[in-house]
TrEMBL record:
Substrate binds at S50, D137, N153. Keywords: Amino-acid biosynthesis, ATP-binding, Cytoplasm, Kinase, Nucleotide-binding, Proline biosynthesis, Transferase. It is found in: Cytoplasm. It catalyses: L-glutamate + ATP = L-glutamyl 5-phosphate + ADP. Its main location: cytoplasm. It comes from Leuconostoc falkenbergense. This is Glutamate 5-kinase. Pathway: Amino-acid biosynthesis; L-proline biosynthesis; L-glutamate 5-semialdehyde from L-glutamate: step 1/2. InterPro entries: AceGlu_kinase-like_sf, Asp/Glu/Uridylate_kinase, G5K_ProB, Glu/AcGlu_kinase, Glu_5kinase, Glu_5kinase/COase_Synthase, Glutamate_5-kinase_CS.
């Protein structure tokens, strides 16, 4: 495995909120421990997170994601504060500082705004602080309406990986790897350990989000992989139930699915 010095790690809603809407506190804690370990061993780590609406639904005792945009905005506002408090508490236990960075898709189309955002993240990394990036769902209502979807932040993570010139992207999901078919439906599905090009056959195996909490799925992860690979980067998809697998990826062990051109 090539060098992993600057790493972007992305966690989706299903990684930190279970199918019953309960927050996975132990997973968040292990994630904080793992990323802190990487940072303290000399790596530069950026975390891209989803989950604001997911954690807000638990706080507000809601069973399903509302369809109305203003209600989604309100949940995003409520959930983002709690989400960051969870991260802050978990990382603080390991004596690791974090910083919040909220972005909207139009930042990447504005040269000045993009430069400002990159400068801020670079300054955080220089101070050994882990930036935690999320989309600003209170403002980016087009994303909530799925008109300009980051796909539960999969595409956002891929763009951030490119713009920060990171060595690679690690996406934590609710599956062990990319499979030849949906493993929850097809018992004959087998994991694909390396993808050198996203083909039509591979796209056929992709499915959307099934948790009902997030907005992504395997199809958006394939789009993220294509974006990363188009810039000669690499992406690894692993199961987020055990964030310590990130360390195995960095060591070059064969876990999950590696997306990298030949």
């Amino acid at each position: 495995m090539e060098n992993w010095h600057r790493i972007v790690v992305k966690v989706g809603t299903s990684t930190i909120v279970d199918s019953d809407g309960q927050i996975k506190y132990s997973v968040i804690n292990r994630l904080a421990q793992t990323l802190t370990s990487l940072q303290k061993s000399g790596h530069e780590v950026v975390l891209v997170t989803s989950g604001a609406i997911g954690v807000a639904m638990q706080q507000m005792n809601r069973q399903s994601r509302p369809k109305e945009i203003p209600q989604q905005q309100a949940l995003a506002a409520i959930g983002q504060t709690y989400l960051m408090s969870l991260y802050n508490q978990s990382f603080a236990f390991y004596q690791q500082m974090i910083g919040q960075v909220l972005l909207t898709y139009d930042v990447f189309d504005n040269k000045v705004m993009l430069e400002n955002a990159i400068n801020a993240v670079e300054a955080l990394l220089a101070e050994h602080v882990i930036p935690i990036i999320n989309e600003n769902d209170v403002i980016a209502v087009d994303e909530l309406d799925h008109q300009h979807s980051f796909g539960d932040n999969d595409r956002l993570a891929a763009i951030v990986t490119h713009e920060l010139q990171a060595d690679g992207l690690i996406i934590l999901s609710d599956v062990d790897a990319l499979y030849t078919a949906n493993p929850t439906i097809d018992t004959n599905a087998t994991p694909i350990r390396r993808v050198t090009a996203v083909t039509d056959e591979i796209r056929m195996s992709a499915t959307g989000s099934v948790s009902g909490l997030g907005t992504g799925g395997m199809s958006t992860k394939l789009l993220a992989a294509e974006l990363v690979m188009a810039h000669r980067g690499k992406m690894v998809l692993i199961n987020g139930a055990n964030p310590a697998l990130i360390l195995d990826v960095i060591k070059g062990e064969a876990v999950g699915t590696l997306f990298q051109g030949e």
